[in-house]
Structures are given as C-alpha cells and as structure tokens.
Design brief:
about 150 residues, alpha/beta, Ribose 5-phosphate Isomerase B, Chain: A, 5-stranded parallel β-sheet, 6 helices, 5 strands, globular
Length: about 150
C-alpha cells in the first residue's frame, strides 16, 4: 500500500483530519506533516513544503495538501523540484492528472471542498496510475527540463 504525505494549514485543518481518517481506514500509511491544531496564524508553506520534499525524495509515494482554497498549497508545492501538484475540484482531473501528467500531489480547498467530494477526489487520485504513453513521457521531459 502507498504511503501518503498529508499537510494543511488552519484553512484546511478540518478537511485534512477527515482525509487522514479516511486514508487510514483504507489501509494507507499516512505521514502527517501538520498542522496538528487549528491555529489561525499558521502559514501553509510551513506544512506543505516538508510534505512536498518528502514526495520528491520518495519518502511518500504521493501527497495531499489542503489550505483554505487549495491555491496557496498548490503554488508552494510546485516550487519543489520533482513535484507536480494540481488543485483539483472534479473527478476526471483527479485521475487524469495522474494518468497523463504523473501528478504526485493533490491540492484541495478546505473551505470549498466538502468531505464526500474530497473522499471521491482522493480515491480517484490514489487509484490512478501514470499511463507511460510516449506522448505523455515526451511532454513530461519538456517540463522536467524547466526544472534544471
């Protein structure tokens, strides 16, 4: 079973906790990078960056980052070399992002994503695998070249 890195600031704390229970209930190993309490003065990079580093280093197979809208978490995660993070709000993109673009971090908005929707998106993300099709590999190589 996969190991999932999980992070959130105060805006995503409640949703993170729900996702954590959901993942553990499905048998995933979860590395929780915080926040560990709802604190309105915390900052999403403090939690998202360590999680994204763990994904990039292979210490977590995939990651899930949650902030109020999901936008800040996505911006921060994408600053880490080797991370392909996307803000996802629909089922198709949750699996297609992995299948075509090898997305490895799912970003969600704690203030805009309901619990049931989050479970559906997380399931689609984690059940998907990269297709490895030549056209997708070619495109990813062009993206990786930007990281150098």
């Amino acid at each position: 079973m996969m190991t999932i890195g999980l992070s959130a600031d105060h805006g995503g704390f409640e949703l993170k906790e729900t996702i954590k229970s959901f993942l553990e209930g499905r048998g995933y190993a979860v590395i929780d990078f915080g926040a560990f309490a709802a604190n309105s003065t915390d900052d999403y990079p403090d939690f998202v960056i360590p999680m994204a580093n763990a994904v990039a280093a292979g210490k977590a197979d995939r990651g899930i980052a949650v902030c109020g809208s999901g936008v800040g978490a996505c911006v921060a995660a994408n600053k880490i070399h080797g991370v392909r993070a996307c803000l996802i709000q629909d089922h198709f993109s949750a699996h297609q992002g992995v299948e075509d673009d090898d997305m490895n971090v799912l970003c969600l908005g704690g203030r805009v994503t309901g619990y049931m929707a989050a479970e559906e998106l997380v399931t689609a993300f984690l059940d998907a695998t990269f297709s490895g099709a030549d056209r997708h590999r070619r495109r990813l190589e062009k993206v990786r070249a930007l990281e150098k």
